[in-house]
Amino acid sequence: MFISLVNTKGGVGKSTLAVHVAAWLHDQGLRVTAVDADEQASLSTWLRVAAPEIPIVPLYTAAEILARAPELAAGCDVVVADGPAALGSEVAALISVSDLVVLPLLPSMLDVWASYRTARLIYKVQFHPKRAGLPRALVVLNRVQSRTRVARVAAAAIEKYGFPVCPVAIEARSAYAEAGARGTVVGRMGRGAALAAVEIGRLVEHMLAQVPESAAAARVLAARRAAQVIASRTLPADVVAPLPVSQMIVPAPAPTAAPSVPAPV
After folding, report:
1. Per-residue pLDDT tens digits of the chain, which is 265 residues long
2. Are 46 and 183 spatial neighbours (Cβ–Cβ below 8 Å)?
3. What's the rounded Cα separation, in Å, for the pair 180 and 14?
4. What is the pTM for the complete model shown?
5. 20, 122, 146, 166: which could join 245 in a potential S-S bond, CB 3.0 to 4.6 Å?
């Protein structure tokens, strides 16, 4: 299974999410390979310290991505790729080799408009005859203030592009910045980052559910369901229950034909 996190706009938390997704999957017992396709190398720098047991492969050109992706995917359970913050052949190559493309998005209309070209590129790949609707795409709202309406407005706007919005939003928590400063991830920080760790777990579960044909995804989801039954008997209700912000967002159905994507105003 090949998962790419892409957004041609920088500063949306793409690398932070990629690091946490890779580390979480590894901690569930999967064989994970991380691909750093961003020459800023944020994923490599952070993950090399936080989870040195995860192999990191830098692929900075479209030719490298297209040549190495099948081999990397065959050699592990999940590949997690962090794409560059630029619209070019490298992003197109990542999208074309992925099973799932995750589009991190800040909850603002400026970020929604900035995602326009990325959306068009994903659709171009999805509706190519050789891809048959793949990769699946998922928007993840990041750094959400749970007590504002901004996330709801941004979710409604991005759904006009035809993308499903993940019902698990990532809240604006200091735990993520603290994890970076410590050279770790929120899932390994203990009780101080418990809510953030639960949030990441729910996010990755939803991501895996988008690829039901993956044996690795099915194995992890089955184990997590069993663990959640136990957790519901021992953890406080505010940890086990869905976060309020997630209830604001309703995923859109997957398109059956390439929509006419509205351009930014």
Report:
1. 999 999 988 889 999 999 999 999 999 999 999 999 999 999 999 999 999 999 999 999 999 999 999 999 999 999 999 999 888 899 999 999 999 999 999 988 888 888 888 888 998 998 888 887 789 999 999 999 876 677 777 778 877 777 889 999 899 999 999 999 999 999 999 888 999 999 999 999 999 999 988 888 888 888 877 776 665 665 555 544 443 333 333 333 344 454 454 455 4
2. yes
3. 13
4. 0.83
5. 146
